Amino acid sequence: MSRRSLIASGITLAAAQAGSAQNQEPLRIVVLQEFDPKELEILRRAAGSRKVEITYAKNRQELKSLLPNTEILYGDLQASELDFAPRLKWIQAGGAGMEGFDKKVLASPIPVTNMQRIFAPGIADTAMGLLLCISRGISTYYMPQFYKREWKPVGTVRSPDHIELAGRTMGIVGMGGIGTEIAKRAHYGFGMRIVATDAKPMAKPDSVEILREPSWFPEMAKQVDVLVSAAPHTPKTERMFNEAIFRSMKKGSIFLAMSRGKLYDDMALVKVLKEGHLRGAGLDVFPIEPVPANHPIFDCPNVVMTPHTSGWGEERQVRLVAHFAENIRRYTLGEPLLAVVDKAAGY
Question: Less Cβ crowding at N or C end of the chain, within 10 Å?
Answer without folding.
Answer: N
